[in-house]
């Protein structure tokens, strides 16, 4: 695909991924929170959720499901998204809590925390906006696959939402970059498992480290009952 063709493809992709947001704007929703998580499957580390509130004029092409982007592109988009967002928040639930309540409930808790944090930033950033009037809070959530009544905000669960909604895709990027950086730090604390490469997933190197070194304080015991 030539450069011009790729640019046109990305513009069209962005238009398609704005459809959910535009439908909500037309209904009078001012602030839309896209919500996604990363880290449900790893053997170690936290599950990380993000909520991102994009401006209505967001026009950055290339935002997509974080798994479909290179690390370099994710980092580039992370910088743009966090700069341009009206608000964003991160929610983290660690391995001990995951073992206690299971990964689905931990994921929902992380998402709810991310929504609260995004709402706080949104209110703080928009409070002094000259054109602002009325309630400064997220009016609707677009969530990747998961229903989130815990957030107490109207929402829509979208299967493969990180491919269909730019807000959810933006959240997937913020969550992925955040968690990857956390796992890289853990690699410095707990060497020998390859956390900077595998991010806690069950690779051959990770299992070799488990056999040689045993469990660390960040491993999910409920995921490793046979060790």
Description:
It is a single chain. With 227 residues, the chain is of the alpha/beta class. The protein has one domain (3-178): 2-Layer Sandwich (Nucleotidyltransferase, domain 5). Helices cover 48% and strands 13% of the residues. The protein has helices at residues 3-17, 19-26, 71-84, 95-101, 103-126, 161-164, 166-189, 195-198, 204-213; strands at 32-38, 47-53, 87-93, 140-144, 155-158. A 5-stranded mixed beta sheet has the order 3-2-1-4-5. Strand 1 and strand 2 form a beta hairpin. The protein is globular, with a radius of gyration of 18 Å.
Features of the shown structure:
227 residues; alpha/beta; Nucleotidyltransferase, domain 5; 9 helices
Q: Name the CATH superfamily classification.
A: Ribonuclease H-like superfamily/Ribonuclease H
* Strand element count: 5
Q: How many helices does DSSP assign?
A: 9
Main sheet characteristics? 5 strands, mixed
SSE series: HHEEHEHHEEHHHH
What is the quaternary state of this protein?
single chain
Provide the fold topology.
Blueprint: H1 3-17, H2 19-26, E1 32-38, E2 47-53, H3 71-84, E3 87-93, H4 95-101, H5 103-126, E4 140-144, E5 155-158, H6 161-164, H7 166-189, H8 195-198, H9 204-213
Parallel strand pairs: 1-4, 4-5
Antiparallel strand pairs: 1-2, 2-3
Q: How would you summarize this macromolecular structure in one to three sentences?
A:
The chain contains nine helices and five strands. With 227 residues, the protein is α/β, with parallel strands linked by helices. Helices cover 48% and strands 13% of the residues.
């Amino acid at each position: 695909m030539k450069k011009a063709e790729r640019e046109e493809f990305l513009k069209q992709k962005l238009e398609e991924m704005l459809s959910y947001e535009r439908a909500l704007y037309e209904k009078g929703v001012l602030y839309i929170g896209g919500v996604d998580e990363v880290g449900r499957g790893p053997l170690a580390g936290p599950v990380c959720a993000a909520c991102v509130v994009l401006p209505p004029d967001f026009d950055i092409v290339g935002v997509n499901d974080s798994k479909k982007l290179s690390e370099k592109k994710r980092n580039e988009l992370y910088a743009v998204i966090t700069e341009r967002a009206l608000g964003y928040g991160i929610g983290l639930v660690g391995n001990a809590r995951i073992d206690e309540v299971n990964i689905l409930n931990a994921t929902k808790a992380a998402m709810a925390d991310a929504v609260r944090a995004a709402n706080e930033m949104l209110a703080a950033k928009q409070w002094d906006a000259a054109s602002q009037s009325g309630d400064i809070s997220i009016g609707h959530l677009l969530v990747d696959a998961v229903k989130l009544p815990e957030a107490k905000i109207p929402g829509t669960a979208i299967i493969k939402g990180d491919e269909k909604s730019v807000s959810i895709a933006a959240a997937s990027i913020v969550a992925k970059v955040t968690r990857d950086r956390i796992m890289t730090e853990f690699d410095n604390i707990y060497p020998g498992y390859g956390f900077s490469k595998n991010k806690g997933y069950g690779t051959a190197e990770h299992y070799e480290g488990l056999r040689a070194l045993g469990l660390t304080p960040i491993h999910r015991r409920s995921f490793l009952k046979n060790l």
